[in-house]
Structure formats: C-alpha cells, structure tokens
Amino acid sequence: MTAPPLAHLPSSDLLLSPLTGWTRAHWEAVADRLLDGLVPFASPGLAQYRLPGPPSHSGVWSDGLEGFARSFLLAAFRIAGSGGRVGPALIERYAAGLDAGTDPRHPEHWPPIADRSQPMVEAASVAVALHESRAWLWDHLDDRVRGQVVAWLGDFVGADVNDSNWRLFQVIVEEFLASVGAPHRRDEIDAGLARLDDWYRGGGWYTDGDGRKFDYYNAWALHLYPVLWARIAGPRAAPDIVARHRARLREFLDTHQYFFGSDGAPVHQGRSLTYRFATAAPLWAGALADVTPLPPGRTRRLASGTLKHFVERGAPDERGLLTLGWYRPFLPVTQRYSGPASPYWASKAFLGLLLPENHPVWTATEEPGPVDTADTVLALPAPGWLLHSTAADGVVRLVNHGSDRLPPPPATAEDSPHYARLAYSSATAPETPGPDNHLALLAPDGTPSPRGRIQPLGAEGNRAASRHGGIETVSVVRGPWEIRVHRLDAPDNTAVREGGWSIADSEAPTTRTGPGSALARRTDGLTSALVGLYGWDLDTHGTVVPGTDTNATGRHSATPCLQQPVAAPLLVTLVVLGVDPRVTGASADVTADGTVVVVFPDGTREEVSGAPASPPGPAPGGRS
C-alpha cells in the first residue's frame, strides 16, 4: 500500500486560520498519512511495526511493540474523533494486532510487562487507546481477546516502576483495569499520583523525578497523563485531586504558550526531542479538560503551527515515517531507549481530534501567539529559566540557570548538550558536541571543563543566575541580546573559552571575526554574534568553530567563540541571536564597589551586583 504524499494536504483556509492556514482537515490528513505509512512495516499478524533504523537498548521485540502501541494511540484519537467513521479497516487492523500481541502462543506476541521494562511505557499507550476508542474497539472484542489484554496489562499490578514519569504509566494502566472490572491495586494508583505531588515545584512545573529535571516531559507526560487518567477514572477520581491537577495545568499553559517561535518551532531543549510536535499535546489537554487560559483560536494556532513546522521540513518523510531525528534523521537527539518507533509518541499531539468538529478550538478564527505580536521576557523561577523572544524574527530564547537532569547528590553523570548549555532557542540546536553557549576553563591539553551540577541562584524580571564549579554567571536579557556576567575562581594561568549560539543551515554560514568578537550568519539572515565587553583581551580576534553533521537543524554549523590563555576573574560578554545583529554601543564597566554596569546596544543601562535577589522557588514568574 502506498500512502498519498503530504503534498496532497487540503487547501489552506486563511479566513479561518490566517496565520497557519491549517484546519482540522489538515490534522486528519497528517494523521492518516502517518498511519498509512506504517502499513508496509507491519508484521503479518499486525501486532508489531518493525520500522527501519537502529534498535533501542530494549531490542527489536520491544521496539515492535512500541510501533504498535504508539501508533495505536494515534489511531484511537482518529477513530474516536471521527465517531468511528474512518472505516472498518483501521479498527480491524488494531483489533487484530491486539489479539495477536496479547496471545502468548502467537509468534508475534508482545514481550511481558516486567519490572522497570520498556513494555510498561507502551502498556500505558495501549490503555489510553483502548479507553478512548472503547465504543468502537474494546466493546466489540470477544471475551477471549479481552481476557488476553487484561492478562497482559495485569502484569503491571505489583511491578517495580522507575521513579519518574513512569509512575504515571502504572496509574493509567491500573485505572483502565479498574474500568473494565479487572484486578488492580488502588494503593498503587494513589501512590503514583502522590509521587507526582512530591515533584511539583510551583508555577506549573514538575521535575521528572528527584533532582532538577525540567524539560518537555513536564508538557507531554507529567501534565498530560493526569488529564487522561481522569478521563479513564470518571467518578472514581477524587475531585480534589482532579482540581489540583487542572489548576497546575492551567498555570503551566500560561507559560507553555511562550515556548513556540512564530514559525511553529518549539524551543530545542531536553531529551526525547525526536517526539517533535508532541509539545502540542498539553495545549489540547487544557481544552479537553476545559481549563486552558488560552483563547481557542490561539490554542489551534500554536498547535497547528508546530505540526506544520515539522511537516514542511520533512517530518514525516517521503515514506510517511517519523524518523529518529528533528527534521532529518539525526541520532544525537536520541537516547539509549530510543528505537525506530519511538518518535511516534508524537501521536499525543493529535489529542485535539477528540474535541468535536464544532468545538471552538476548531471553529474560532486563529489568534496570534504571544511571540507573534510583542517582545517578551518571562522569568521562570521553578526551573531556573529566563525566556526572551522578539517579534521581529519570531525567535524564542531560553536562558538556562536551573535544569541539568543530573541525579541528586552525591551521584554524578556526564553533561548532556541538551541540558548543560547556558541557552537554547526555537531557531537553533546545540552542537553535539561543541563549544556553544558554554563558558569553559581549559586544561593544558585543551579539554574544556563541564558545566556539571547547576546551582540556581534565582530568576526574576529580566535576569537569572546560577553557579557551577568555580563559576558564577548572571544573565541579563533585552530583546535579542543577552549580557553574561561571569565571576570566576580559577587556578592561576588557566585558559578560558566562551561560545555563543551555534547556527546551522544546509550551507555553511558566513562568518566574520574581529578584535574580541566573532559572528556567523545564515542565508535567511539569522545571526549569532559574540562580543567581549570586559575582561577579554580585545587585541585577540574571536574565532568561529565550524561543524558538519553535529547539529539537528542543519548539516553545516558555526559557533562564534572567544578564547584567551589566562582567565580574568570577571568576564562580561554580549551574546546575540536574531535578525538584528547590532552590537555597537554595548559596553561594561565596574564601579568601585564591584557593581558591573552594562549597556545594551540600544542604550539601555543595567547594574549587576550579583545574583538576582529572589532565590529559586515556587513563586510565579515575572513578565514584562
């Protein structure tokens, strides 16, 4: 079977959707393309989808289950959203797969649910899909198949679960078992929900387990699954718990809307980025639970914008497949657990299809997102982040002074480029590896120091700060500019290097260097610049470090850098990303009491005496 190309999408509707042109029909068309693209890779009994690509550490047997479970989630949203009018073939396909996969005597049967095993993750997708498509699938399965499904899911009861978002997989599966009258343990459901409360840090932010693990799992797991659990539980769900989850989701969405660039790209930070447009899932969840603070036209604009962004850049590809990567295949955005079907957690983005065609999210005229209309600064004390976006280029920048995804002390782990950088954006991706957005002390052999564990010192107004090792950094932002004030406690005669933003393109960016400065520019005008303002040797030219196949957003990349043989105790740097590359007029000076006075290129003056006054905590973020 050959799936139709995405060139055959419905025509744009610029009256209903003046920003993206996309409507519900576009979402349905992309869903159908994704589902059709999987058919050539289905096993004969339809219980597994074994896609091309390197296997995960769980092996091809588990990966085949992953292909079924994650696409079943998409199929369920498509079936339920159409009221079953998708035709019998799709329903029969997944009914047959359920029969074969849960029959332990069938050659395609699924691996069992064992302690801390990948089938736990996939079982949650199966349970959600069974619930949402219940009227068209579960209710029509014969008793033998239902018994097999219950027996397979039932291995979750009493099992040992990773202490992270995985606790919610147990909540989902056992609540589904409860909904069909099967054995389950209410104490395990309650314990999983209670653990979620332990991880809540305020302002709509959960950490994904102990430590400072802030990323999109807050969006597509820790906020999403409580909404799905409440739908499965119905009257069994305690009203106070549901209300608490919904209030937190509402607060989160008020922030999450700022994470999307005007071109639809989400900020590129954290793990599992191959899930791509799953970042839209909580937008729909807020509407589904009737708690969103966003106007319906803005919800659709943001969600459609991010789906359209990836579709126009080759995801899905010409076969209708989502590959391991961001736009093109790019394995550095994956983890050991990533298999060929892992990207299909993006199916969560299609949650909005559960909302009826006449719901305001589908019928209201699109409204601009916050990045479309004004420059914005948003401080997020809980994760230790600072967002600043500019309407002129539609770019969102995230300054990171709080998320390192390291286990709690005394355990240690290596830096990840998706957590250890000082900044991330909707228009760029980190080098893997590379010097970008990192201040490093250099060993005699040139080895850079890691950032390691981040100690957040606060985020308030237009500044945020943190400490790592012997370095304290305060970031102050305005428009496309960030000024970093670094105070270093380094051994004598230690070299230092700072990297700016890495930009990437299909062609090598153009570059320019000068005394104490460096610049790289893409063909579309997006520019990265780095300028030493204080403590840097202005007699030394900056450099630009090239990269090939080290960046998720393009094959050729370039990172402006400054480096000198002896680190000064105070370094001040102007870091620029945008279509406005102005750097002239920026300056820094130090008063007698040690206060650093910085001036931005537009003449705005700021004083930095140390870290922001507010410590990290659950206080709501500031906004300007």
Structure keywords:
alpha+beta, disordered C terminus, disordered N terminus, 14 helices, 22 strands, about 625 residues
Notes on the structure:
The protein is of the alpha+beta class and 624 residues long. The protein has helices spanning 24-38, 60-81, 88-102, 119-132, 143-154, 166-179, 186-198, 217-222, 224-233, 239-256, 281-288, 296-311, 360-363, 370-373; strands spanning 200-202, 205-206, 376-380, 385-390, 395-400, 423-425, 439-442, 455-460, 463-468, 471-478, 481-488, 495-499, 503-505, 510-514, 517-521, 527-534, 543-548, 556-564, 570-578, 587-590, 596-599, 605-608. The strands form 5 sheets. The chain has an 8-stranded antiparallel beta sheet with strand order 8-9-10-11-19-16-15-14, with no helix packed on it. Helix 1 (24-38) runs antiparallel to helix 2 (60-81), helix 2 (60-81) runs parallel beside helix 4 (119-132) and helix 4 crosses helix 6 (166-179). The radius of gyration is 25 Å and the shape is globular. The termini are far apart.
